[in-house]
Amino acid sequence: MKIIIMGCGRVGSQVGQLLVKLGHEVTVIDHDTNALARLGMDFKGRVVRGIGFDRNTLLEAGVETAEAFVAASSSDNANIVAARIARNIFRVPRVVARLYDPLRAEIYQRLGLTTISTTGWGAERIVEVVTHADLDVIHIFRDGGTSLIRVEIPARLNGHQVIRMNIPGEVMVAAITRNDQTFIPVSGTEFHEGDIAYLTVIPSSMSRLEQLLGMERS
């Protein structure tokens, strides 16, 4: 994946290094040369010095072809502005914003913007959300232990019972939307092709869920 990270503080630099190790094409933006130095001399990605919500800076970083954008600076306002520009103007398909204020995080989550608001687990959770691009993460619970995922059930699971998707302690189908009606399934409920399923998933089981759904990792 081609991923842009705005902000090269502790979280941004960790996210950049983790993503590069996973084989992704990473560009890190920061206005501070000293901050960019956090990445180290052996960093295999690109660095762009500039303001992360400036149009020319974003274009230099390759935002027009980016598959994901991470706003991880120390400013909530800058992160929100950059994330909204990336999503609404440049149509980057996967956008994550790190926010310090949990109240702001909840507001922007309701607007459909994925946010990370807890510092301790920020870098690893950001990597998980960005790299599992086929899973639509619509909410990350505040302690970071569980995410709410929205997926369209593929044809291969038509007629399969919900219980086959549930993995105790890891994955649970919480609700299904079918023909514009949402209901809570029981163990014997069968999936229909085109169902929209809402699942609670722990971070370490994202890949396992993709396997259950028959998704190819990029």
Please characterize this protein's 3D structure.
- This protein has 218 residues and is an alpha/beta fold.
- The protein folds into two domains: 2-131, NAD(P)-binding Rossmann-like Domain (Rossmann fold), CATH 3.40.50; 148-213, Regulator of K+ conductance, C-terminal domain (Alpha-Beta Plaits, 2-Layer Sandwich).
- It has seven helices and eleven strands.
- A six-stranded parallel sheet has the order 3-2-1-4-5-6, sandwiched between helices.
- Helix 1 (10-21) packs across helix 6 (122-131).
- The longest helix has 14 residues, at 76-89.
- The radius of gyration is 18 Å and the shape is elongated.
- The model has no long low-confidence stretch (mean pLDDT 85).
Short description:
With 218 residues, this protein is α/β, with parallel strands linked by helices. 29% of the residues lie in helices and 25% in strands. The chain folds into two domains: 130 residues, NAD(P)-binding Rossmann-like Domain (Rossmann fold, 3-Layer(aba) Sandwich), CATH 3.40.50; 66 residues, Alpha-Beta Plaits.
